[in-house]
Amino acid sequence: MNASASTAKPRALVTGATGFVGSAVARRLLAEGFIVRVLARPGSDRRNLAGIEVEVAEGNLTDAASLERACADCDALFHVAADYRLWAPKPEELYQANVEGTRALMQAARKAGVKRIVYTSSVAVLGIPKDGTPGNEDTPVTVDDMIGHYKRSKFLAEEVVREMARDGLPVVIVNPSTPIGPRDLKPTPTGRVVRDAAAGKMPAYVDTGLNLAHVEDVAEGHWLAYQKGVIGQRYVLGGTDMSLREILAMIADIVGRKPPKVRLPHGVVLPIAYISETFARLTGIPPVATVEEVRMSKKLMFFSSEKARRELGYTQRPARQALEDAVHWYRDNGYLG
Fold it and tell me: Is CATH 3.40.50.720 the right assignment for the domain spanning 3-182+212-241+302-317?
């Protein structure tokens, strides 16, 4: 390919590309022929960028100047990055990154003339019907319904984006449910459940429910939103609604173990979470269980992707395939001991 043809390729900035969902989005865009630029903190873990050709713009969401440099000459922006912690010794850091960082990045994209933006929100900001039926993009919810600083910060960040969309910013919003699959390096809170269950380290469970989606389906949903999404609209990118008991049983079957049979009442787990957080504040070591996680687990996080299927052509693969791909990646990369 000659130089003139190469420069004709569109360029997309992907934030969070060193992470789980962001790396899948970056790979999806490379497959479509984009030049992919990634925003990465100096000294960040870049293993998820191994084997792919990307431009690296060093910076972070709290450095507005670095965001302006990263957005320069970009046709598209996929803002996937977020401070995803259900416990933080300094909660204000979540708001600085997720709310003010998003605001600064959207302003930088507007200044740079970026033509199309996909903002990665979360189903965590959506309402949950009290009758146990799946929530969707229109289920009523307010900021007062948000449990914990992570959910509140993401709710406020999405409000910033929606307001800027009303003011003419060309942004489409996607709300992934619970992605699982390869390259969950940290891993995410749900990834830790999958890893620990596969390693036989989850002898008990609580009654809760999640909507599991393969990370590569979520990445495909980002691409579909870029192509077909309506400016200012949001789209749930989900998969299969499952109880935690069903998830653990499926993982046990995949690895050839017996599933846990002990169900712990929320009232038993909550004091453990408080003790765990107190210990974490004293030592700086993240807690094994957080109060926020326990409080969130009282609700069934079930969601419908019907709007994304109808308007974007979004599809989802079976939950078992997503779990198998996650377990195999953890096994192949030494996470299971």
Answer: yes
